Amino acid sequence: MSARDLHPSKIAPPSKLGRSRVSRAAALVSLLLVILACRNLYAESGAPLTLQALLLARVCNYDRNFKARAGSVAKVLVMHRRGDPDSTFEGTGLAKAIADLHDIGGLPFNVEEAGFGDAESLAKRCRADKIAILYLTVGLEADTARIATALANVGVLTVGSSARHAENGAVIGFGVEEARPKLVINLKQAAAQNVKFKAEVLALARLIQ
Fold first, then answer.
1. Where in the sequence is the domain holding 182, given as residue range(s)?
2. What is the maximum span of the chain, computed from C-alpha positions, in angstroms?
3. Residue 19: which pLDDT band, with cuts at 50, 70 and 90?
């Protein structure tokens, strides 16, 4: 091979497939780094809301249907239980943590917080406003099953701040197992709400069939 053969104009550019693999690998490394950061802070202070928000933003990169559901701007609704100080406090903290993100799943977004009334009204709002992500705070675990039923066939990613939310019907929950953070994914509810995660993130989660 001559020096002329090594001229930049003679070297084939990396293929789209190669760039795609590099991009997926970088995103996975980013997700793992967030989980490792969460591991340290979970052990120290329980459930860090800022890192929950960051992990949510990363996880959405692994939802094959996220951008199609969300459109040009991802709408996020944080739901708390009215009259519950802990739930309201967590909802406000989550809304602020999410608002501080640069993007979610590669999309611009807006975030709102609201008090929970009933599952049917919530599902109606998700449809009408095309909510991309519905975040359920502490205090709504017992309502999650009714919310899940109402949201069947509604294209929305439901996220709970605890593993119990996912066990009761949210698509994702953030749990702690053996003092380590753990994603919990409800596969049945994910399918019912048009959420399809890539294998990379499923391998990092506890799966509920």
1. 15-208
2. 76
3. low
